[in-house]
């Protein structure tokens, strides 16, 4: 079984002529239950050979026991989740007290003293964001990250995210604009999670664009989907890095690394959230010209049964 779908003999050894050796089927982490009731996980690869008819070999199937590998992955996820949870509470206190110091002691502090508190607050905020990302990664890997989907105004979600980044764009001397039609179809999304995607893309665009540049958010309707583009005039991404850009912990080397404190988790999380919405995400980029990150969301998606749908119910008169 693979994702509750039966794997048949035809999948492993299709009845067709081939001219060269080739892999015809491959699957990872297939679950098998042994006679003693213990579950094991196997990786399966099936190959056909070009001289099969003369040798009487239909196909060659290779099974690799991945149970231990999966157990180690589970242990790693357990550790990451536990460590992140343990760090979250004291960090919340640290940020709270630093915020209080900023407000209460600001009039009596010298500029350099106030600068120290500001830097400590920024660092604590960055560490908090890292912990939240690690928790998200843990939930994504376990398949326990669920969506709370509701019918939403995509224009309103975009406007709120753009407003949240206006101060950052102003600090960086970046022109942040939105080019969106007044009327857009309403879509079913998890407002919080999809805002994480938008925030990550907009924040990255501003961060990697030089002062005086611009970032534009636009939307188009295409093939029963809303396609959102986040276009910048920044440094651009090398062509060889594009296939790996949404990979966990991947960071682009070179000019994009300078001054960046990223962990390589944001785009991986963004892709995972978009995938859960049955959408797609991609990027087009050219070095020294800029990048355009785009993602599509279906206007009328087929919602999974394990997702929570929250419809607005009008009270009866």
TrEMBL record:
One of its GO terms (molecular function) is phosphorelay sensor kinase activity. PANTHER family: HISTIDINE KINASE 1 (PTHR43711:SF1), TWO-COMPONENT HISTIDINE KINASE (PTHR43711). SMART domains: HATPase_c, HisKA. This is histidine kinase. It comes from the Bacteria. Residues 82-301 form the Histidine kinase domain. InterPro entries: HATPase_C_sf, HATPase_dom, His_kinase_dom, HisK_dim/P_dom, HisK_dim/P_sf, Sensor_HK_Regulatory, Sig_transdc_His_kin-like_C. It catalyses: ATP + protein L-histidine = ADP + protein N-phospho-L-histidine. The keyword Coiled coil does not apply. Its EC number is 2.7.13.3. Coiled coil: none annotated. Keywords: Kinase, Phosphoprotein, Transferase, Two-component regulatory system. CDD domains: HATPase, HisKA. It comes from Candidatus Woykebacteria bacterium RBG_16_39_9b. Transmembrane segments: none annotated. Signal peptide: none annotated.
């Amino acid at each position: 079984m693979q994702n509750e779908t039966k794997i048949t003999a035809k999948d492993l050894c299709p009845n067709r002529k081939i001219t060269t050796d080739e892999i015809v089927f491959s699957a990872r982490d297939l679950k098998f239950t042994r006679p003693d009731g213990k579950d094991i996980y196997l990786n399966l690869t099936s190959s056909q050979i070009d001289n099969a008819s003369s040798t009487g070999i239909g196909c060659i199937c290779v099974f690799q026991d991945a149970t231990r590998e999966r157990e180690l992955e589970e242990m790693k996820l357990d550790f990451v989740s536990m460590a992140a949870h343990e760090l979250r509470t004291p960090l919340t206190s640290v940020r709270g007290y630093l915020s209080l110091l900023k407000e209460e002691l600001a009039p009596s502090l010298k500029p350099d003293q106030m600068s120290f508190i500001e830097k400590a607050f920024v660092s604590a905020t960055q560490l908090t964001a890292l912990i939240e990302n690690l928790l998200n990664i843990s939930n994504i890997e376990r398949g326990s990250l669920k969506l709370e989907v509701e019918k939403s105004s995509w224009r309103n979600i975009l406007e709120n995210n753009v407003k949240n980044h206006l101060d950052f764009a102003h600090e960086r001397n970046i022109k942040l604009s939105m080019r969106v039609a007044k009327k857009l179809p309403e879509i079913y999304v998890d407002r919080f999670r999809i805002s994480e995607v938008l925030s990550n893309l907009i924040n990255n665009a501003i961060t990697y664009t030089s002062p005086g540049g611009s970032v534009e958010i636009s939307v188009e309707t295409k093939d029963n989907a809303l396609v959102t583009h986040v276009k910048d005039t920044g440094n651009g991404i090398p062509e060889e890095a594009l296939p790996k850009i949404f990979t966990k912990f991947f960071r682009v080397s070179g000019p994009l690394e300078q001054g960046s404190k990223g962990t390589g988790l944001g785009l991986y999380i963004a892709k995972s959230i978009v995938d859960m919405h049955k959408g797609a995400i991609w990027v087009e980029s050219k070095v020294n010209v800029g990048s355009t990150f785009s993602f599509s969301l279906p206007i009328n998606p087929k919602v999974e049964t394990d997702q929570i749908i929250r419809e607005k119910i009008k009270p009866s008169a």
